[in-house]
Amino acid sequence: MKILFLGDVMGRSGREAVCRDLPNLRKRLSLDFVVVNGENAAGGFGITEKICQQLHAAGTDVITTGNHVWGQREIIPYISKDRRLLRPQNFPPGTPGRGIGVFETDLGKKVLVLHVMTRLFMDALDDPFACVQSELAKYPLGGTVDAAIIDVHGEATSEKMALAHVADGRASMVVGSHTHIPTADAHVLAGGTAYQSDAGMCGDYDSVIGLEKKPAIERFTRKMPMGKISPSMGPATICGVYAETDDSSGLARFVAPLRIGGRLKETWPFQNHPS
């Protein structure tokens, strides 16, 4: 199976780039399944029903979120209706929506998507390690599901990496989101799980993590309330992680970053493919 995970979609620039280019990416990479983190898609904070529909129409199978999931209040009544929109599973019981689901590809393969948020430098949610252990036990890879993808939304690379090792051998792919900076550590773990600490963002990199430079810098230098900062509107780089899995085991046999457009150096998965 060929899987693509796209990092945090940042504002209109990132949203328009993903909606424009994803249909072609699905064809060019012969993708079976696509996960997109959309928590910053609406003005840099949150997501709306309309944007969810746009991302789905472009070829997104599942949308994940994170700590900004409630940035747009209208998403609260909608999130329970869209089973392809996930919030972190380790939110407290009773939180609207869900953080896990099993989805079917066009060829009938079953794909588990689990979304958790870490706790170092983040909100004090329920234990993500216990959550991952518990949920993966319900969906054995190569048995109940053909592939399993985990979006680990968090600040600390150490915590993301530790969670990946907990899931190693039981998930096809563990990818970090949230920091908007693509890391250079894409590799297959010892047990067969594809991993990258952060996929990066789909947004304008002539910015401060996707936000306009001047007001963002002033927040650091003046230490005064500056009001809401808007996403930068320059050309977006689409950042993500591509993985291929073994059909019998569901484990990864190849993983590589994807970066196209905008200011970052272009990187295609097949540039590093062993075949």
Short description:
The chain has six helices and 13 strands. With 275 residues, the chain is of the alpha/beta class. A hairpin with a 5-residue loop joins strand 5 (100-104) and strand 6 (110-117).
What does this structure look like?
With 275 residues, the protein is α/β, with parallel strands linked by helices. The chain is built from six helices and 13 strands. The strands form three sheets. Strands 5-6-7-8-10-9 form a six-stranded mixed β-sheet, covered by helices on one side. The protein has a five-stranded mixed β-sheet with strand order 4-3-1-12-13. Helix 5 (157-167) links the parallel strand 7 (147-153) and strand 8 (173-177). Helix 1 (11-28) packs parallel to helix 2. The longest helix is centred in the N-terminal third of the chain and has 18 residues, at 11-28. It is globular and about 55 Å long. The relative contact order is 0.17.
Helix content: 10-25%
Given as residue ranges, the uncertain stretches (5+ residues, pLDDT < 50) are: none
User: Strands of the largest sheet, in order across it?
Assistant: 5-6-7-8-10-9
Radius of gyration: 17 Å
Count the E strands: 13
User: Roughly what is the average pLDDT, rounded to an integer?
Assistant: 96
Strand residue content: 15-25%
What's the order of the H and E elements? Answer: EEHEHEHEEHEHEEEEHEE
How many helix segments?
6
Kindly report how far apart the N and C termini lie. Answer: 16 Å
> Judging from the principal axes of the Cα atoms, what is the shape?
globular
> Structural class of the secondary structure composition?
alpha/beta
Biggest sheet, open or closed, and with what strands and sense? 6 strands, mixed
